[in-house]
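User: Okay, second chain of the day. Same drill as before: sequence in, structure tokens out.
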Amino acid sequence: MGFLLRLFSKNTLFVFFIFLQIIALVLIFSRNAMQKSWIAGQTAAFNSWVSGYIDEGVSYLKLKQINEDLVVQNKALMTQLYGKDGAKMPVFKRVHDTIGGGQIYTFVDGEIVFNSINRRNNYFTINRGRRDGVFPQMGVMAPRGIAGIVINSTDSYALVQSVLSVNKIRINAALKSSGYFGTLTWNGDNSRVMHLADIPKYVALKVGDTVVTDGKSAIFPKGVTIGTIAGYSVDNKTGFWDISVELSEKMGALNKVYVVKNLKKAEVQKIQDTMQAVIKKKMISRTLFTDILIMIFLVALQIFVLNRITLFGKYTPVLYPVFVMFYPFFRNKFQFLALSFLIGLSIDGFLYSWGINAFATTLIAYFRTLIFRTSTDTSTDFFSFQSLQWAQFLLFLFSSIFLHQLLVQYIEFFKFSRFFEILFNVLVTSVISFIFIVIYALIFKIKQKV
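Assistant: Same drill. Structure tokens below.
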């Protein structure tokens, strides 16, 4: 019992997802005539199958008695026939204190055993692990600059996310000359160059100026050299500088590294978590009200406008799943699943398709991260549509609406004999809906805002 409770506590989101899907399935097979008839037939067949096995089991249990009876009968026959005459090596941890009093950082030195620089998201492995005090979310520095952040560790080794990773790592960086700080990321083009954003364009810049860590993340110490400014221009979308930073460290030639241990990280993290909790609490009441308004708008638009549009005599555009597609990734996941279930159930209420749309929207909501990663090859750790190319953005939209329609139409028609006919309807409906979704995204500037 204790094991089950621990299992549920570690997978509460999955348990909540299954709970919502069970509600949807109960509605599907109890309120829709075709599905109800099918489940009745399957239940009867199952009962018959179980009864058959029970009968076989009872017969098996009687085998001993039957065998004993046969032995008696055989003995009698034998008497009649023949009764008448004639007839490991240890790894030593080396930890060095930083110089000077009052410092909060120590370092674990190590060496690279594997490194990659030619992918969109790169990693390297070091020969230090948990036995050496190396754990996830620790910074990794090289002799001339920063190198990455630990994402996993075993007893003897650690896997490090390289700074050369698109959308997976954002470094808090600052201009050494003026102190203005921003966000440093890699765009996947040049392994020697990263890009610094969020610096106001009124800040004076000069090629060759030094860029350093600003110390606000509790991962890297303040003032660690990152690189120098190689060029800059104004980003027309944001109005801030887009600064090219040439890295001081050659990532392709890494050998020696140092893992950063912040001795007061837990204390700093506790303060930051408290602040985030206060901000989040204020946001939830405001955003939940906004989410409900958006739900009402999309349901009304779908039911009273789009459902009255019939293209080619049989195809109706489906727009309301944009609520699931464009819902911000940083929001509460339980709230997201609940709202996705409710918007699908609202559509079901108007269409008398109880549970079908709720099942589909909840499923794509739960697997949205997987759909996003599969269609864009991008992490959701720092999710933003702004960072995607248009081809990636459009592929994510089409993949989502296609999966949604695949679920809705196959559950609704529930006839596998019409597999290819339903698949064709799914494809056409998805294409038409995709066009409407793109128009919606352009009108509300989703790619620029989210």
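DSSP finds twelve helices and 13 strands in the chain.

User: Thanks, on to the next one.
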